């Protein structure tokens, strides 16, 4: 398949490399054709490089990993009409953010309401159906349960309780991150309501380790 890439950054390089290796016809675009040509050459497998305009024209599927809309860097977006655009982008995520400023957290509200208590966010991402199985069965299935809170002893106690239920606690850090677990529940419930599958439960899975076939993570622009 003809696959092209807008921007020749980290994600484009690795995904383009993997598809090229699988035999797809791969074209990397960049603001500078020299850069994408050099990356395509390093990838091998007949990968090619050029400008972003060339890439937009080339692909049946166009992978978009530039954190802005195409009209800001393509001379003519109409070449994308009828094509599939895979948007890989995430908004900037400030490392020192304060979650409650981005999204009001129910758990933070409880902590503010009862300042003398030790609030731990937990169990908001398992539907009741996911807790129907006996502990041994949940343990065997490796069901993770995310928690957040500011008091380590309180989190340790809650973690022990979760373990006794057969769950594997995942410490997501301080209570200011509870809003992320609440947003995780929004994702989960959107899926549940769409599918009727209330057994879905979030987890971190680890990819197998492997050498960087198409180069290590470079200092990118994002
Ligand atoms: N890295 C990850 O692990 C990862 C995982 C999932 C999603 N993402 C998302 O994928 C996107 C790309 O991430 P990345 O790590 O690949 O970033 P990156 O290495 O910084 O690459 C982004 C590329 O975008 C192009 N670019 C930047 N500003 C531009 C502009 N004003 N106009 C046109 N092109 C511009 C540049 O390509 P040229 O220099 O070739 O023009 C740059 O190399 C981001 O939205 C990120 O949040 C990243």
Describe this structure in words.
By secondary structure, the protein is α/β, with parallel strands linked by helices. It has two domains: 86 residues, Rossmann fold (3-Layer(aba) Sandwich); 97 residues, NAD(P)-binding Rossmann-like Domain (Rossmann fold, 3-Layer(aba) Sandwich), CATH 3.40.50. It has eight helices and eight strands; from the N terminus they run E-H-E-H-E-H-E-E-H-H-E-H-E-H-E-H. Helix 1 links the parallel strand 1 and strand 2. It is elongated. The model has no long low-confidence stretch (mean pLDDT 93). The structure holds NADP nicotinamide-adenine-dinucleotide phosphate. The site of NADP nicotinamide-adenine-dinucleotide phosphate has 20 residues, from helix 1 and helix 2.
